[in-house]
Amino acid sequence: MLKTNEKHLVEMAVQGKIGPAVRSRGWTPDQFGKIHAVPGVGSIVYNVKVGDPAFGWKGDHIEPGVSTVVDENKRADSVNAAYNFLACMGNEARVVTGDAKGAKGVVVGHHGGIEHVMIDFDDKTLDKLTLDDKILIRAFGQGLELTDYPDVKVYNLAPSLLHKMGIKAGRDGTLQVPVTAMVPGELMGSGLGHPDPVSGDYDITTMDEKVIRKHNLDKIRFGDFVALMDCDNTYGRHFLSGAVTIGIVVHSDCIISGHGPGVATLLSCRTPLLKPMRSADANIGQILKIGRFRKPPRTRK
Fold this sequence. Notes:
CATH class of the largest domain: Mainly Beta
Number of helices: 5
Radius of gyration: 18 Å
Strand content: 25-35%
CATH superfamily of the largest domain: tm1086 (SG structure) domain
Distance between the termini: 42 Å
Structural class: mainly beta
Helix content: under 10%
Number of domains: 2
Largest sheet: 6 strands, antiparallel, barrel
Number of strands: 17
């Protein structure tokens, strides 16, 4: 097991509510100038879950599961920023109001700009939730360090999930990290240059379909762990030759030029200390048995 400082981390409650669906413009233009009228971010999404393809949806920036926020009218407010920052991938979430009160879910993403935190719940809970419901998250993970690898920065990651990702120490001194895909750094777009890699995400641009197919990026799924090559997210998001960032896919492909599947930062190092290893099982849903990997409830005979 990787040695960490998790015994010194602070576990803190943060509480949000289900964010309503948002439409920020009348039409959404694509790279060819064609305009679209399709669903976007927010709300309870019943049929899109971790484990589903990030491509192919008739929508833009679709968020899997339940999108939550503290105050949709004050997205830049410090309280909302803390909610987005403190909620880490793999944290437990619990419904505290309404017919679904007591039901538990898992944080699976956070989305910059709209400042949503996405949570996976089972179908029974989704059917009971309403847009008035509140959800409490046991936020735990920010400040996490790998004590034997101080050059690797860890963000947005619950220690419990870190230990289940199958990361192994290589004989060459590297950390071998299972991922479903490796993304060339030149494909990273919207969000590039942001000084804060600890909240939100940035996008894999998908306008060059030949390059996307060449690297099998059209096969990535919500919740996949992917490697961003030559990408430094240690103290900001930028291109740096030799750097490697491991992230999680948090929203769908996009129509808007310069956008695509969103990736939130989990691990980053300025040198090739992180060694991506391809694995079809490198998905938060597969690891935690949630989303499309959740076993159906047993029925009594």
